[in-house]
Amino acid sequence: TATFELPAVTPGDYRLSAVGNGASGQQFAAQTIHVGTEDISGIRLVLSDTPTLSGTIRFTDANSPANAQAQASAFLPSDQTLLINASASGAFTIQQQVTPGEYTILIIKPPGYVIESIRQGGVEIPGRKISIPDAGQAAPLEIVLRKGGGAVEVHLASTNSAQDPVAITLL
């Protein structure tokens, strides 16, 4: 058991979180609090094992590359990055590094592949944002990649014929 005090906290809503190490690995606890102009005491956080994230990366064609990778960058609770290395079958499980919060999935795709879908618990993910619960196992992730995608051809004109373009960016 440990006691901490955070002095001079500006009034507002916060997510109070703690990370520690237990016998089975990393543990996590969180609670949403509202700080006003009065002191708050008696908050009790209980550390529990961090959630598990598992799923598959699969390709729609038979000649897919082995050991595909997907990377998840966190918005909450920190700027933590998880590297997901799938097995040859496409399966992956991450337990020790995952903390609860909202994550945005960024995919490192093999050349020539595009994202067909990203699903969590069988539901298409809008904006590629997944949710990791405070405890237990997150709904499984399914990342589907396919060959193809459209090409973009750009014809750049300039009113100054002596100047070459420096860069073209597609966001």
Walk me through this protein's architecture.
There is one protein chain. About 4% of the residues have low confidence. The chain is mostly beta strands and 171 residues long. A hairpin with a 2-residue loop joins strand 9 and strand 10. 15% of the residues are buried. It is built from no helices and twelve strands. The strands form three sheets. It has a five-stranded mixed beta sheet, with no helix packed on it. A four-stranded antiparallel beta sheet has the order 6-5-8-11, with no helix packed on it.
Q: Which properties best describe this structure?
A:
single chain; 171 residues; mainly beta; 5-stranded mixed sheet; 4-stranded antiparallel sheet; 12 strands; 0% helix; 44% strand; flat
Offer a quick outline of the entry.
The protein has strands at about 10-20, 25-35, 50, 55-60, 70-75, 80-85, 90-95, 100-110, 115-120, 125, 130, 140-145. About 0% of the residues lie in helices and about 45% in strands.
Topology (SSEs and partners):
Elements: E1 12-22, E2 25-35, E3 48-49, E4 53-59, E5 69-74, E6 81-85, E7 91-94, E8 101-108, E9 113-120, E10 123-124, E11 129-132, E12 141-147
Parallel strand pairs: 4-12
Antiparallel strand pairs: 1-2, 2-3, 4-7, 5-6, 5-8, 8-11, 9-10, 9-12
Spatial sequence of strands, sheet with the most strands: 7-4-12-9-10
Number of helices: 0
Query: Averaged pLDDT, please?
Result: 76
Radius of gyration (CA) equals 22 Å
User: Between the first and last Cα atoms, what is the distance in angstroms?
Assistant: 49 Å
Order of helices and strands: EEEEEEEEEEEE
Extract low-pLDDT stretches. Answer: 73-78
Q: Helicity range of the residues?
A: under 10%
* Biggest sheet details: 5 strands, mixed
Per DSSP E runs of 2 or more residues, the count of β-strands stands at 12
Indicate the structural class. mainly beta
Percent in strands: 35-45%
The global form is flat
